[in-house]
């Protein structure tokens, strides 16, 4: 498990949408000899400073943010009211441990409130709670203590407090934010596998774009697409597994079955030409992929494919169980297969292969 330390560092990093600073630091520490640039939205660009204007450009996308909350207000008892940043249900947030950022940029632990069963009526026990009813308890007893002693104010980010764990015996990882730190790690690993000399020698520019604010509407990727102006893009994602939702026959995102290649989801329809190229590369490399047609969900592909004059996008998803909760489970092998498939695909890709992205006279 060559990249397990990188995966651990990325999973443990705190990065609610708009507050991806700790993830930025991990990417910076693992950029190798490639150039890394940051824009005003905290989006990162790997190897973008080396762009050759005479070559087509392929962008490897991933997003650095994770689902979290923002402190909305502080009540008189010292409880924090919160607003979701990204998709949460009350069932997955209630009674869980979180980390709240303070003014001096450190994080303190908190628990999402629940009413003890001892005080609940029979009717209350049957009724689901609403997300709006959850507050965060940092162990303070007054509003003044929260503000003056803890240094927590309105507008601070909140993230799950989970720590990464790997089971060496079966190669399964458990942790938070695999959506989409698996993708961030995949981009870094692809660049590392190729190395600076081989990347420079490619007949196209290879740019890694690490986007912010995906969980609140694919926002960072609008900017990265604009800036990089790629001819094609590959989106890496930690996509929800359907191991338990569907049968083995109908499942399209099963853990340990290889990367999921998406044909559609609620945000885009993939380029059939580009997807066919990925399928051919997977057959040549002997790497199993899972073709997926998703009804809901979405990735940065939604923003990228309509950027500029239209960008063909292929999405490679690494199946993650329990997306948008504190504890996700993923297989290291699916991550490695995604990296290996991408490296094999890039090594065979020629400048002529980008012809399909150009405007044609019919
Ligand atoms: Zn997500």
TrEMBL record:
**What does the record note about the cofactor?**
Binds 2 divalent metal cations per subunit.
The record ties this protein, via Gene3D superfamilies, to:
Peptidase M42, domain 2, Zn peptidases
Name the Gene Ontology molecular function terms of this record.
aminopeptidase activity; metal ion binding
InterPro entries xref list: Peptidase_M42 (IPR008007), Peptidase_M42_aminopept (IPR051464), Peptidase_M42_dom2 (IPR023367)
Q: Show the active-site residues.
A: 214 (proton acceptor)
What are the UniProt keywords, alphabetically? Aminopeptidase, Hydrolase, Metal-binding, Protease
Q: Which cofactor does it need?
A: a divalent metal cation
What top-level branch of life does the organism fall under?
Answer: Bacteria
Q: Where does Zn(2+) 1 bind?
A: 63, 179, 237
**Binding of Zn(2+) 2, residues:** 179, 215, 324
List GO BP terms, alphabetically.
proteolysis
Record-stated family? Belongs to the peptidase M42 family.
Write down what this protein is called: M42 family peptidase
The species this protein belongs to is Aerococcus agrisoli
């Amino acid at each position: 498990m060559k990249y397990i330390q990188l995966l651990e560092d990325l999973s443990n990093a705190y990065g609610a949408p708009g507050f991806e600073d700790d993830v930025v630091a991990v990417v910076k520490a693992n950029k190798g000899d490639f150039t890394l640039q940051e824009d005003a939205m905290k989006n990162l660009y790997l190897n973008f400073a080396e762009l050759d204007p005479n070559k087509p450009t392929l962008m490897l996308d991933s997003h650095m943010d994770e689902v979290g909350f923002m402190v909305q207000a502080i009540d008189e008892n010292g409880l924090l009211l919160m607003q979701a940043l990204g998709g949460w249900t009350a069932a997955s947030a209630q009674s869980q441990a979180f980390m709240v950022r303070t003014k001096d940029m450190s994080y303190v632990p908190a628990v999402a409130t629940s009413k003890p069963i001892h005080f609940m009526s029979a009717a209350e026990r049957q009724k689901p709670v609403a997300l709006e009813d959850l507050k965060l308890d940092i162990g303070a007893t007054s509003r003044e203590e929260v503000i003056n002693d803890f240094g927590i104010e309105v507008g601070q980010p909140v993230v799950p407090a989970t720590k990464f764990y790997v089971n060496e015996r079966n190669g399964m990882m458990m942790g938070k934010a695999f959506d989409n730190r698996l993708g961030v790690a995949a981009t870094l690993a692809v660049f590392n596998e190729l190395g600076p000399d081989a990347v420079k020698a490619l007949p196209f520019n290879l740019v890694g774009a690490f986007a912010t604010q995906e969980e609140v509407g694919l926002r960072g990727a609008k900017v990265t697409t604009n800036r990089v102006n790629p001819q094609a893009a590959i989106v890496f994602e930690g996509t929800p597994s359907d191991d338990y939702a569907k049968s083995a026959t109908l499942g399209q995102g099963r853990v340990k079955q290889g990367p999921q290649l998406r044909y559609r989801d609620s945000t885009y329809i993939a380029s059939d030409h580009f997807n066919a190229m990925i399928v051919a590369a997977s057959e040549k490399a002997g790497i199993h992929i899972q073709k997926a047609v998703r009804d809901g969900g979405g990735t940065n592909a939604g923003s990228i494919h309509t950027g500029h004059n239209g960008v063909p996008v292929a999405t490679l998803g690494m199946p993650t169980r329990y997306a948008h909760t504190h504890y996700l489970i993923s297989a290291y092998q699916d991550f490695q297969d995604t990296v290996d498939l991408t490296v094999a695909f890039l090594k065979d890709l020629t400048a002529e292969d980008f012809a399909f992205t150009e405007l044609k006279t019919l």
